[in-house]
Design goal:
The chain is an alpha/beta fold and 226 residues long. The protein has helices at residues 33-43, 46-64, 81-85, 89-100, 113-117, 120-132, 150-154, 164-168, 174-189, 202-210, and strands at residues 2-8, 12-19, 23-25, 29-31, 74-78, 107-112, 136-142, 159-162, 193-196, 215-216. The longest helix has 19 residues, at 46-64. The mean pLDDT is 95. The structure holds ligand C2E and calcium ion (CA) (2 copies). One calcium ion binds at residues 141, 163-164, 197.
């Protein structure tokens, strides 16, 4: 499934989508990734599954490239720690870029803070390789993990993604307001794009715009669709 990501300026512009996996079962209907990604991680199936997700994203980008209206769209893909930590992860990325021949900067890999926090040196090296291959990088759920600010100066990242838990009560909870304001300010100072996820109301959007946020994702703009 794909959920639109929007740049709000003088006009609202779709700049890309986040890929969000679903399992469609004949009896159970749609099964949430929250319920099966942890199992895929435990069993190791996350590796082939993660590769399939990257392939689907690359296929989609290739298809969009033939349409002048869509040729600039990018896709954000969630990368699980188990997938990232595999020794073969960067090699599989190299093979995929060659196979699909797409511009890797159109793929934005979303890594969580827990990935960045574990075995820092090894992860750091891996992230630098991924970046040098041309992929774009986002820190997902920013602010919910360890948020060691030192990695912001070490890592070649493009984007901070403000977790929806801070957006939900942004209007009514002064603590969330302060956290969001701080994340936007960190992003600006480190020259990173900042995207807010889980934006559901116009009020939240107006507030975020007035705080200097430019990129948005949430039900206000569109639910994940197939
Ligand atoms: P996430 O990366 O934080 O993704 C955001 C979640 O918020 C998605 O849930 C999305 O459908 C939901 N969402 C988007 N806009 C709104 C909104 O306005 N309001 C509310 N209440 N929710 C909104 P989803 O699709 O159920 O995914 C849950 C989590 O599962 C994701 O959290 C991510 O950690 C994981 N996941 C999803 N797809 C993949 C995947 O392809 N690979 C891996 N490794 N993990 C995935
Ligand atoms: Ca995500
Ligand atoms: Ca999140």
């Amino acid at each position: 499934y794909f959920q639109p990501q929007i740049l709000v300026g003088s006009i609202h512009e779709v700049i890309g989508f986040e890929a969000l996996i679903r399992w469609i079962d004949a009896d159970e209907g749609i099964i949430s990734p929250i319920n099966f990604i942890p199992l895929a991680e435990e069993s190791g199936l996350i590796v082939p599954l993660g590769e399939w997700i990257l392939r689907e994203a690359m296929n989609q980008i290739k298809e969009w490239e033939t349409d002048p209206l869509k040729m600039k769209w990018r896709i954000s893909v969630n990368i699980s720690f188990k997938q990232f930590e595999k020794e073969t992860f960067t090699d599989s990325l190299i093979l995929l870029i060659h196979e699909y021949g797409i511009d890797p900067s159109k793929l934005r890999l979303e890594l969580t803070e827990s990935i960045l926090f574990k075995n820092t040196n090894e992860s750091l090296q891996k992230i630098q390789i991924i970046k040098s291959l041309g992929f774009s990088l986002s820190i997902d759920d920013f602010g919910t993990g360890y948020s060691s600010l030192s990695y912001l100066k070490q890592l070649p990242i493009n984007e901070l993604k403000i977790d929806q838990s801070f957006i939900r009560d942004l209007i009514i909870d002064p603590n969330d307001y302060i956290i969001v304001e701080t994340i936007i300010s960190i992003g600006r100072k480190f020259n990173l794009e900042v995207i807010a996820e889980g934006v559901e109301t116009q009020e939240q959007l107006d507030q975020l715009i007035s705080m200097g946020c430019q990129f948005f994702q949430g039900y206000l703009f569109g639910k994940p669709f197939r």
